[in-house]
Amino acid sequence: LHSLEVLSLDSNKLDSIPESIGNLESLIELDLSDNNINSLPESIGNLKSLRLLQLYQIPLTSIPKSIEKLKRQGTTITDLYVRDYINNSESEY
């Protein structure tokens, strides 16, 4: 799996993503759209080759601080919205 470059997990009714996702060092594109994922693992920031992260229609309530690493390395993050159910508000990153 170390040479995996594209991983499309969209529309799979996933509730979570394992920390081990950060071990996929060659991953260029990751699509997690249309799942039930509430948060992303901190290890997502370890995806040094990632250029596209798709997060359409997932109910994120928090994002890891490591997402800043992805933004600094030029990863295009599509539709990263975090829903704050406690304060009933949304934020865009």
Description:
The structure is a single chain. This protein has 93 residues and is mainly beta. It has a single domain, classed as Ribonuclease Inhibitor (Leucine-rich repeat, LRR (right-handed beta-alpha superhelix)). It has one helix and six strands. It has a four-stranded parallel sheet with strand order 1-2-3-4, with no helix packed on it. The radius of gyration is 13 Å and the shape is globular.
How many discrete domains?
A: 1
At the fourth level of CATH, the homologous superfamily is Ribonuclease Inhibitor
Number of helices: 1
Give the CATH level 1 class.
Answer: Alpha Beta
Looking across the biggest beta sheet, what order are the strands in? 1-2-3-4
User: How much helicity do the residues have?
Assistant: under 10%
Percent strand equals: 15-25%
* Largest β sheet strand count, sense and barrel closure: 4 strands, parallel
Layout of strands and helices, then pairs:
Blueprint: E1 6-8, E2 29-31, E3 52-54, H1 67-72, E4 76-78, E5 81-84, E6 89-92
Parallel strand pairs: 1-2, 2-3, 3-4
Antiparallel strand pairs: 5-6
Give the key terms.
4-stranded parallel sheet, two-stranded antiparallel sheet, 1 helix, globular, mainly beta, 93 residues, Leucine-rich repeat, LRR (right-handed beta-alpha superhelix)
Question: In summary, what is this structure?
Answer:
This protein is mostly beta strands and 93 residues long. The protein has 1 helix and 6 strands; from the N terminus they run βββαβββ.
